[in-house]
């Protein structure tokens, strides 16, 4: 693959890391993430003005980039490509949020000009919903069992025990970037397993 000769030294190092990551090198994924996670996070924080949303969107941006890493070409810097993915994903998120945001206290007019009030559903689950939630949890545990041990442990800590990334890194004695990169991979594997199960049904 022809590399743009105008790429900076940093961009050329990034491209080598991308090539290693595409071949399955987990350290390369973690290194790419550690190089850009802070700058991506702060850019997104300016866009959404919410720390939790910015953290989630940072993870999503890396998830999408890593999933499509094989499509990256060194015509321009990896950072340019990554920031574009993060920005587009964030714009989509803001659009979706605006679409579904409305005041629950204000009444609205329907097509006939009549006032309508929104009824807020009780946060308590009815018996049927409880059963469905239980079945989904059981299905997810079955799927998680099919993961490799290291991914299985990460998913259990993050989603079943609801630990923070920092707590997981401490417990498993892994760098934070490695924990996040491997959780991306684990989620991708989970998605593929669930997709294959749906196709078989």
Brief digest:
By secondary structure, the chain is mainly alpha-helical. The protein has helices at residues 9-22, 26-48, 51-67, 78-100, 127-145, 149-160, 165-172, 176-200, and strands at 108-109, 115-116.
List the helices and strands and how they pair.
Blueprint: H1 9-22, H2 26-48, H3 51-67, H4 78-100, E1 108-109, E2 115-116, H5 127-145, H6 149-160, H7 165-172, H8 176-200
Antiparallel strand pairs: 1-2
Helix pairs in contact: 1-2, 2-3, 2-4, 2-8, 3-4, 3-8, 6-8, 7-8
Structure in words:
By secondary structure, the chain is an all-alpha fold. The protein is built from 8 helices and 2 strands, in the order ααααββαααα. It has a two-stranded antiparallel sheet with strand order 1-2. Residues 101-111 and 116-122 have low confidence and may be disordered.
């Amino acid at each position: 693959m022809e590399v743009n000769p105008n790429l900076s030294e940093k961009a050329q190092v990034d491209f080598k890391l991308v090539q290693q990551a595409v071949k399955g090198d987990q350290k390369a994924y973690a290194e790419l993430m550690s190089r850009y996670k802070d700058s991506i996070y702060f850019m997104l924080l300016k866009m959404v003005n919410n720390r939790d949303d910015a953290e989630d969107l940072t993870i999503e941006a890396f998830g999408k980039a890593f999933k499509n890493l094989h499509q990256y070409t060194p015509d321009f810097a990896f950072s340019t490509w990554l920031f574009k993915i993060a920005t587009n994903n964030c714009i989509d998120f803001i659009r979706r949020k605006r679409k579904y945001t409305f005041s629950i206290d204000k009444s609205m007019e329907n097509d006939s000009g009549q006032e309508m009030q929104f009824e807020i559903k009780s946060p308590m689950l009815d018996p049927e919903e409880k059963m469905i939630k239980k079945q989904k949890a059981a299905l997810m545990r079955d799927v998680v069992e099919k993961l490799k041990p290291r991914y299985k442990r990460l998913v259990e800590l993050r989603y079943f025990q609801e630990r923070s990334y920092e707590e997981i890194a401490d417990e498993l004695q892994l760098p934070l970037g490695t924990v996040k990169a491997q959780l991306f991979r684990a989620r991708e594997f989970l998605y593929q397993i669930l997709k294959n199960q749906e196709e078989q049904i």
